[in-house]
Structures are given as C-alpha cells and as structure tokens.
From TrEMBL:
<keyword id="KW-0479">Metal-binding</keyword>
<keyword id="KW-0249">Electron transport</keyword>
<dbReference type="InterPro" id="IPR008972">
    <property type="entry name" value="Cupredoxin"/>
</dbReference>
<dbReference type="InterPro" id="IPR014068">
    <property type="entry name" value="Azurin"/>
</dbReference>
<feature type="domain" description="Blue (type 1) copper">
    <location>
        <begin position="54"/>
        <end position="172"/>
    </location>
</feature>
<protein>
    <submittedName>
        <fullName>Azurin</fullName>
    </submittedName>
</protein>
<dbReference type="InterPro" id="IPR028871">
    <property type="entry name" value="BlueCu_1_BS"/>
</dbReference>
<keyword id="KW-0186">Copper</keyword>
<dbReference type="Pfam" id="PF00127">
    <property type="entry name" value="Copper-bind"/>
</dbReference>
<dbReference type="GO" id="GO:0005507">
    <property type="term" value="F:copper ion binding"/>
</dbReference>
<dbReference type="GO" id="GO:0009055">
    <property type="term" value="F:electron transfer activity"/>
</dbReference>
<keyword id="KW-0813">Transport</keyword>
<dbReference type="InterPro" id="IPR050845">
    <property type="entry name" value="Cu-binding_ET"/>
</dbReference>
<dbReference type="InterPro" id="IPR000923">
    <property type="entry name" value="BlueCu_1"/>
</dbReference>
Length: 172
C-alpha cells in the first residue's frame, strides 16, 4: 500500500511536470508570434499622379520605413506621424530628403548647430524638402514633386537620430 502511494505520487509529479513544460512551450510560441514584426506596406497608396506615403517615427528612434519608392513625375504626399509619447525636445522627429552627393554624417553634424531652426541648416543646397520637427502624437503632411530618377537618402536631423533614422528614397 505504501509502495503504491509512492508510485502514484511520482506519476502525478511526472504528469504535472509534463503539463508544465507544455504550457511553457505554448507561451514561448505565443511570444514568438507576437514579436514577429509586422510587414509594413512599403509600396505606397497611389492615386493618379500622386503617391501617398505614411512614415512614422517612434520613441525607439525608428522610422517604420527604410525605403520609399515613387514614380518620376509624381507628386508625393508624405505624412509623417510621431507615434510615440516623448516630447519634441527629447525625441523630435522630422523627415529630411537629402540632395544626391550629400554626406549624411557631415550634414548631421551641421544640423546640430541649428537647434533654433529645428535642426535644419539654413542656406544649404543639401535639402530637397523637409517636414517640421514633431513630438509624440503629432502629425504633418507635405506635398512635393518627386525629384528626378535616382536614389536619395532621407534622414531625421534631430541630433544623433540619423544613426537609426535613415532610409532610401527611390524615384523610378
Ligand atoms: Cu528623430
């Protein structure tokens, strides 16, 4: 009788352990599923001759897009949205489209000197177009003509941000 009790306790323990590890595995799987980054639309919504682009920036200093493609001759309607909560002073984001041949690092270093102008260097021919600087929860839209065919860099000119906040703007 004593022996039987021991065995049944043991098997109960094994059963319990098995249950436990199953649950763990399931949880692990769920976490993996949740952490899979959502594939954002890189192709933008297109109307006649107008390419609409939605670019977001967050509190983790990241854009949602690393590449924006538009057609030559199109008008581009670009909306930048700061989807974070941090202030413009600590985590400001903008969109700056740089002319070809611009040295990104040099431009970034120059931008730091223009705090009073929202980190947009004055009298420069390195900028094709830019948005204003946004804080958490803010949004702005600019419309401009796509530059000629080719590859351009876009960045956020807030100090230090272009290390992560940069991408290619491709006109085809
Ligand atoms: Cu930024």
């Amino acid at each position: 009788m004593k022996m039987f009790k021991k065995i049944s306790t043991l098997s109960f323990a094994i059963l319990f352990a098995a249950c436990g590890s199953n649950t763990e595995k399931k949880e692990e799987k769920e976490i993996k599923l949740n952490s899979t980054p959502k594939v954002e639309e890189t192709k933008s919504a297109k109307e006649e001759g107008v390419t609409k682009v939605r670019l977001t920036g967050n509190d983790q200093m990241k854009y949602n897009l690393s590449e924006i493609r538009v057609n030559a001759g199109d008008k581009v309607e670009l909306t930048l949205e700061h989807v974070g909560k941090m202030s413009v002073e600590t985590m400001g984001h903008n969109f700056v489209l740089l002319a070809q041949g611009t040295n990104m690092q040099e431009f970034g270093a120059k931008a730091v000197e223009f705090k009073d102008n929202n980190y947009i260097p004055e009298s420069t021919d390195n900028i094709i177009v830019h948005t204003k600087m946004l804080g958490g929860g803010e949004k702005t839209t600019i419309t401009f003509d796509a530059p000629e065919k080719g590859e351009y860099d876009f960045i956020c000119s807030f100090p230090g941000h272009l290390a992560l906040m940069k991408g290619k703007f491709i006109v085809e």
